[in-house]
Amino acid sequence: MRTTTDTLVIGGGILGLCLAMEMKRRDPGGSVTLLEKEAGCGRHASGRNSGVLHAGFYYGSDTLKARFCVEGNRSLTEYCDDRGLPIRKCGKLVVAKDESEVAGLEELHRRGQINGVELSLISESEAKEIDPRVSTFEKALYSPSTSSVDPGRVVAALLADAREIGVEVLEGIRFLGRRGPAALTSDGTVDAGYVINAAGLQADRVGKAFGFSEHYTMLPFKGLYLWSSEPEGAYRTHIYPVPDLRRPFLGVHITVNVDGVATLGPTAAPAFWRENYGGLSGFDLGELAAVIWRSSELFIRNTSGFRNLALDELPKLWKRQLVRKASHLAIGISARHFRTWGAPGIRAQLLDTRSKELVMDFYFEGDDRSFHVLNAVSPGFTCALPFSRFLVDEIEKRAG
To answer: 117 lies in a domain?
Structure first.
């Protein structure tokens, strides 16, 4: 195959699909091609996440996450309603374990108010009216706009929309590198006027092929959830702990999926290689060595509290320990109800190799020939629609 396209998008997750559609909408006469290395779109983070549409109160007001989460939540909620996609508008409670965490609830409430999030600081008795099983100290934070969707069905709907407006989607074809302006793939060469990199776990590698991502690399983290054997409706709402805002993770929580079934998790331990979903699937010796080296360096230095994070996360790989971590969230959490692991997901977490710190906000680089979304971690799924419009604005500035 040798083909020519005005715009080539690499990566068929939710952000790649939204970027491809936005480019096509702005220039209906231009050609847009999306390249996805798997046999179908959304096979990695976009199809393996919890499906929670976040409200936007965790993030500092100066971040891109805060800028796009509220609008993203509203846009994806409307999209699911319009398309008849399943959505469970169950809300979220953030709970305090003891008196020391009440200040954390108040800080989240303050951030939410600044970010324009619908949010209430409520009493313990009011929290129990929302979910009788919830356990909290004196106060809780209630977010009515947090909900659950089926991420696979959302990606499938977006894929259908992309094809309908004329985006050419090439699945099962891998980006291999670059030769001048041409992209080399496992099925030939694509001559592209402009290249957009939304390759998730591989975004730093694609970026390096175009002279970007010089000081960044991907450090993958594996997320695992335990599925509840209790019937639908055993929990009425998502229940989250007060997180350590210095970390990129929200802690072990109870998630209610679109079918009303609860899950417990996730873990957030470093994965051994980028696509380390299970067994030797996706094994790469070079990646294994790189992850061990980077993780060991961060562990020894304890940069950004990495050692504390690792020591806290590793015990969660055992079911009973994961259940124990969550035991303060609600009444009646028991290991006998949480025995089955769900499908794992990998968080594509960017690491700054100069500062040795995890990149906490969305991050991108680009010029007049290519553009690279290097960090689009949670709540990237929630933010995808407005974030993609912003990114295309940035692309147009660079492309002239």
So the answer is: no
